[in-house]
């Protein structure tokens, strides 16, 4: 027995090591490890090319943490780390090296075939990505320009050039002056007509804005909208908005997508004073953007401060107003906000029986909110904790929500949980007594769906344990065994599906 226990502990420890890659732990890189330590971790089985859920790998983490170039080049030499490998937001390593101002690694990557005109998912070339972060080392831009970058042609998806992108983080305008010396116009605008003053407003640097005005750059109302978006460094202060208003810019300005300043501001925490300021200026909380989302919907979707909802609620005309996809504030809160936010909306008359234009009810949004994982490396962190899921579900049921009601396409909560590939969620549904063998409009049961998407056999075996019938055929006369036999993930992992026969 003792030997068996020791063997179990050993296997468990090895399994835990395999699941957690030290090279994807930010704290590992913060300690500036040398090459010998990195090699030791690789020899232990830590994968030097693995991407985390957010698309970051050890090379990117090393570059961003300012690791030694020796360490970075060692990692680049490992299998799976080609210089043109796509990482977070579709960026190659050259993007990250340029952003950090690491010209030595930039030269190395280019010598290995990396392209300086490569765009990421936002249309950012390497040069523009570095400019967005305010990288002051002009050698970075010179390297890019020597290797295919074009300042006038390289624009992001908003039509912004490097000068516009850089100014928010360019306090003394040295970088701006550099780009002007290279041929960019100080009066450049993006596709929506936003100029360099508006881009400067995003960071809220009043001195920079004043200098730009002295240089002949005009201020227009869109600067208010840009300021409301803030920057990576945080939200802007009330002083910034008051300064912009002193220039006769309109607080009630609407953008090309129909948004007003509060659409962005209500998403950020600790903005109550500023929200009240704009409410006093007549900014409309019922204003819908082009996607049909109102200011109130945006707050309900993500702002966990109930006082914000309380501040907006007296001005809301219809709490059940839906956006272009038929999604209401309650559905957005169920998906992305806290149980307290959901409870507040329900107390104000939010309808639990709404469905969106696809015919999905609140159950679909509740399932999307659930997360059993840590959320490590994921933008925005984890989804709703299991206890939050339970709290929201209970509130909805108390208001008459029928958790057993399928979606318009026939999917039950079991179908939705299987599609999410989350076994812990499946287990939490068992007590709701939903028919595990119900078919959707495609003729598929939850077991059929699991057979198609499962990565291993655990979800399939669990469904069988709670009464899923393996002999039910699909509309095309296929059984769960037939579908599982065609599942490439199961075949690749050599998972036997004979238990489904």
TrEMBL record:
<keyword id="KW-0677">Repeat</keyword>
<feature type="repeat" description="ANK">
    <location>
        <begin position="409"/>
        <end position="441"/>
    </location>
</feature>
<dbReference type="InterPro" id="IPR002110">
    <property type="entry name" value="Ankyrin_rpt"/>
</dbReference>
<keyword id="KW-0040">ANK repeat</keyword>
<dbReference type="InterPro" id="IPR036770">
    <property type="entry name" value="Ankyrin_rpt-contain_sf"/>
</dbReference>
<protein>
    <submittedName>
        <fullName>Ankyrin repeat protein</fullName>
    </submittedName>
</protein>
<keyword id="KW-0732">Signal</keyword>
<dbReference type="Pfam" id="PF12796">
    <property type="entry name" value="Ank_2"/>
</dbReference>
<feature type="repeat" description="ANK">
    <location>
        <begin position="442"/>
        <end position="475"/>
    </location>
</feature>
<feature type="repeat" description="ANK">
    <location>
        <begin position="257"/>
        <end position="290"/>
    </location>
</feature>
<feature type="signal peptide">
    <location>
        <begin position="1"/>
        <end position="18"/>
    </location>
</feature>
<feature type="repeat" description="ANK">
    <location>
        <begin position="89"/>
        <end position="121"/>
    </location>
</feature>
<feature type="repeat" description="ANK">
    <location>
        <begin position="325"/>
        <end position="357"/>
    </location>
</feature>
<dbReference type="InterPro" id="IPR051165">
    <property type="entry name" value="Multifunctional_ANK_Repeat"/>
</dbReference>
